[in-house]
């Protein structure tokens, strides 16, 4: 029983020193990228509940991120002149996203597959377009200009937007946000794990596998599906609030369809329904484009002596190519939950053999 | 309509169901007394599965009545029925392939909240189905067809049903396995569970049942004791292949 604890201790130490290590080795920009990666991981884990656990294809998931972000922005900026504390605004944003999740879920309960995807896609766009246009007749969202000068996150006396020095270690804003986001990411991971192994988690799987049989078991399809939408949306809203506080600025642009697709890619690429897979997918899909952005320019210089293709467009090209290759090579995702299947059958095989021997 | 001697557990009265313009059920009447094993036989498209689905609350019906233990099922949702002791094993077994055998069985007790008795029942089930005990940690999708059918039966039993509705339990199984499944069905019946068995394999169904109903194009055309049906010339020619 020593080894699992050792593993956890090592992971904890790595996570604690990661921002300093990254800062020293790659520069502060990469710490910021890790912060964003964690926001995306929270989103991906939220979407994983809807898509991975409950099997409901949601193409407008970023709308809940937007709801959380705008909730935070409106209650914490000169836009409405409100400056509410972080611990009130963040749960409020998550709750509001949860309500939107139920609002979207309720009319789509009878829809499946492609039809559900189209409706959720539409919902995502409706939210974005609303945010874009709610600047007239009464200016609520400030339209396409977005809301700026959002108050930085304050936790007690600590402002996450200042630099602190403790025992010679410099904690810059990106470091401070790192630890806050890490805390929330771990929370989301723990909730996801608990859900997976719960009565509700099994009800989601049952519903995804065979709706008729699930109903015959006494599972209320409507209630359980709404719960998936609500839980997923809550995580999205949470990530949204953190995003607004971190960025200090939100605009409708950040919540386009592409973002929904990116989060969905993280879930699918990593392996639907498997938390470790989703974590991997999230990290890869944030790190990969950044690495390509920074790497493709110098690489071209090295190969051809000049920059032939704009790194920005090459980045998306390579990104798309990578996705296609991975999906061809590992259609179930990089780290699919089916692994459980092979583990289990292998185990039962040995048990069966052992019984035959005895 | 004949009035059954025993107070029926399930009473279907002039039930009509239509899909779009097609009348799948054109007014059928039948009943099941407590403890009875009833076979509903008929060819493909006769309306057998539709009847089950209507009782199970999975499709709406346009006219008629379904009474279960003096309760009208008109406005009862599918997922509420199991709490009333009405369990369905759907066509194609409906196993949850990505859950383990044990998780599947526990799913059968989803509607129950009595934790300690559920644990006891699970052990009883494993006693009844040793094959499932051996494979309790295996994903249900990796079981053979026969094992899956056994598991579906076991799962339904985990809800402690009063009336068990089985839709084509022999479908897609090897003859040897079919015999085992029907043996199990007979066992369940002797323990006092009422069973409504829908089968295309008429001979097998009538051999285990006490009474049978023959369905044709949305109507019940013959209703009699199972033994009489097995002897009847009409049934033999049409459904038993003699």
UniProtKB/TrEMBL annotation, chain B:
Keywords: Amino-acid transport, ATP-binding, Cell membrane, Membrane, Nucleotide-binding, Transport. This is Branched chain amino acid/phenylalanine ABC transporter ATP binding subunit LivF. The keyword tRNA processing does not apply. Gene3D superfamilies: P-loop containing nucleotide triphosphate hydrolases (3.40.50.300). GO terms for molecular function: ATP binding; ATP hydrolysis activity; branched-chain amino acid transmembrane transporter activity. Residues 10-242 form the ABC transporter domain. Signal peptide: none annotated. CDD domains: ABC_TM1139_LivF_branched. InterPro entries: AAA+_ATPase (IPR003593), ABC_branched_ATPase_LivF/BraG (IPR030660), ABC_transporter-like_ATP-bd (IPR003439), ABC_transporter-like_CS (IPR017871), BCAA_Transport_ATP-bd_LivF (IPR052156), P-loop_NTPase (IPR027417). Belongs to the ABC transporter superfamily. One of its GO terms (biological process) is L-amino acid transport. The keyword Nucleotide-binding applies. PROSITE patterns: ABC_TRANSPORTER_1, ABC_TRANSPORTER_2. PANTHER family: HIGH-AFFINITY BRANCHED-CHAIN AMINO ACID TRANSPORT ATP-BINDING PROTEIN LIVF.
């Amino acid at each position: 029983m020593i080894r699992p604890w050792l593993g956890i201790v090592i992971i904890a130490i790595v996570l604690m020193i990661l921002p300093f290590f990254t800062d020293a080795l790659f520069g502060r920009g990469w710490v910021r990228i890790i912060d964003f990666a964690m926001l995306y991981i929270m989103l991906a884990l939220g979407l994983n509940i809807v898509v991975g656990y409950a099997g409901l294809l949601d193409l407008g998931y970023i709308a809940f991120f937007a709801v959380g972000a705008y909730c935070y922005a409106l209650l914490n900026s000169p836009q409405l002149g409100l400056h509410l504390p972080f611990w009130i605004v963040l749960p409020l944003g998550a709750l509001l996203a949860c309500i939107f999740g139920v609002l979207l879920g309720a009319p789509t309960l009878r829809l499946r597959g492609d039809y559900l995807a189209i409706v959720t896609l539409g919902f995502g766009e409706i939210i974005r377009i609303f945010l874009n246009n709610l600047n007239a007749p009464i200016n609520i969202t400030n339209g396409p200009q977005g809301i700026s000068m959002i108050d930085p996150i304050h936790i007690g006396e600590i402002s996450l937007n200042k630099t602190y020095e403790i025992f010679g270690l410099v904690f810059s804003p990106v470091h401070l946000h790192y630890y806050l986001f890490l805390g929330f990411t771990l929370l989301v991971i723990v909730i996801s794990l608990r859900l997976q192994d719960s009565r509700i988690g099994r009800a989601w799987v049952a519903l995804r596998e065979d709706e008729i049989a699930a109903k015959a078991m006494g599972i209320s399809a409507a209630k359980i599906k709404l719960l998936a939408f609500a839980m997923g949306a809550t995580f999205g809203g949470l990530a949204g609030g953190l995003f607004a506080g971190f960025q200090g600025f939100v605009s409708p642009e950040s919540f386009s369809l592409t973002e929904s697709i990116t989060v969905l890619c993280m879930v699918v690429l990593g392996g639907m329904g498997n938390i470790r897979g989703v974590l991997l997918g999230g990290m890869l899909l944030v790190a990969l484009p950044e690495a390509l952005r920074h790497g493709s320019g110098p690489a071209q210089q090295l190969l051809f002596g000049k920059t032939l293709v704009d790194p920005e467009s090459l980045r998306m090209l390579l990104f798309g190519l990578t996705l296609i290759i991975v999906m061809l090579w590992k259609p179930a995702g990089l780290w699919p939950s089916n692994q459980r299947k092979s583990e289990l059958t292998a185990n039962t095989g040995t048990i069966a053999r052992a019984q035959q021997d005895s | 309509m004949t009035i059954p001697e025993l107070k029926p557990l399930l009473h279907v009265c002039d039930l009509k169901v239509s899909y779009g313009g097609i009348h799948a059920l054109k007014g059928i009447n039948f009943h099941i007394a407590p403890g009875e094993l009833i076979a509903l036989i008929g060819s493909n498209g006769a309306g057998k599965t539709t009847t089950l689905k209507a009782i199970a609350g999975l499709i709406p019906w346009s006219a008629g009545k379904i009474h279960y233990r003096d309760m009208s099922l008109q406005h009862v949702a599918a997922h509420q029925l199991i709490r009333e002791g009405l369990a369905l094993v759907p066509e194609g077994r409906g196993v949850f392939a990505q859950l383990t055998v044990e998780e599947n069985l526990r799913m059968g007790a989803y509607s129950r909240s009595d934790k300690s008795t559920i644990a006891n029942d699970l052990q009883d089930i494993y006693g009844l189905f040793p094959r499932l005990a051996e494979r309790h940690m295996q994903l249900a999708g990796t079981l053979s067809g026969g094992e899956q059918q056994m598991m579906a039966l076991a799962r339904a039993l985990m809800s402690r049903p009063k009336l068990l509705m089985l839709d084509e339990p022999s479908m897609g199984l090897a003859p040897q396995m079919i015999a085992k499944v029907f043996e199990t069905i007979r066992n369940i019946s002797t323990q006092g569970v009422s069973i409504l068995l829908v089968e295309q394999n008429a001979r097998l169904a009538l051999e285990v049942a006490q009474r049978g109903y023959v369905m044709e194009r949305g109507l019940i055309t013959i209703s009699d004791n199972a033994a009489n049906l097995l002897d009847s010339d009409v049934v033999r020619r049409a459904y038993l292949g003699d």
